[in-house]
Amino acid sequence: VSWNMGIAGAYPIVAGLEEYEKIRTALLKNIRTEGRLLCEFGLSSVDISAPYYDPEGYWNGRVWMAHQWVFWKALLDMGEVELASEMAHRALKTYSKAERLQGHCFENFLVSTGKGAGTPHFGALSAPVLSFYCAYFTPGRVSSGFDSFISDRENDDEGFPLKFTVNDLFRKPYNAGIVVVLMPDTEYEINGQPVLTDKSGAVSFAVCVDKKAYVTIRRI
After folding, report:
1. Strand locations in the chain (E)
2. Rounded to the nearest 10 degrees, what angle do helices 127-137 and 65-77 cross at?
3. Could you give the 3-state DSSP secondary structure of residue 183?
4. Cβ–Cβ contacts within 10 Å for residue 85, how many?
5. C-beta contacts of 185-191 below 8 A and 24+ residues apart
6. Most buried one in 117, 145, 185, 211, CB count within 10 A?
7. How far is CA 186 from CA 48, 89, 164, 169, 203, in A?
8. Which pTM value belongs to this model?
């Protein structure tokens, strides 16, 4: 029996694995594949195919929001914007459904049903959910991963970004994922490329950052 199938085994993705492409590809596959670390309600604390996985376990089979947020940020660092968006929205759906049905701020969620579990007044583990909501539903919000930061932002009269700079903190040139919330269901050009925002106004894209990258946004 392999005892190394917990979510901690995928954390090298968070640290960065540019020089180990095969390992990074394998770990990403486990994150994006239903029935491995991924379930309907988010990332499980243990690979669902592990022999010691328990669908109603504590650390061996539940969804914890803090893990969802850490991997979301790491996926943005890799330019995996679609997978990052899917992870954030699964977390929001899981949390909001449990809160509506049960009325608490839960510590974690059962992989088997998505039902809230653990301590029912765990405000600290609600913070990642607020971050997800702000990233995809707060007008004017710009979000990035761990390894970059936003500067030199200019807004229009309504507070939506017109231009900003993405700054590389640590790494050689890489594709940085960015999430911007603009006007809903609206056509824009981002660095000359046409995009259409979703019903919340969110749009995700990646830019190649070599120390800096410049983003310009124009409504069509």
Report:
1. 38-39, 42-43, 62-63, 108-110, 116-117, 142-143, 148-155, 161-168, 174-181, 187-190, 193-196, 202-209, 212-219
2. 40
3. coil
4. 22
5. 186/219, 187/219, 187/220, 188/217, 188/218, 188/219, 188/220, 189/217, 189/218, 189/220, 190/215, 190/216, 190/217, 191/215, 191/216
6. 145
7. 40, 20, 20, 32, 10
8. 0.94
Report, in angstroms and rounded to the nearest whole number, the Rg of the chain calculated over CA atoms.
18
Which two tokens mark 4? 């190394």
Query: Strand 142-143's sheet: what is its strand order?
Result: 142-143, 174-181, 202-209
- Give pLDDT tens digits for 104-150: 889 999 999 999 998 888 777 888 999 999 999 999 999 999 999 99
Distance CA 166, CA 59 (A): 37
- Helical H runs in 3-151? 12-15, 21-32, 65-77, 81-102, 127-137
74: CB partners within 8 A, 6+ apart: 13, 14, 145, 146
pLDDT in tens, 174-192: 899 999 999 999 999 999 9
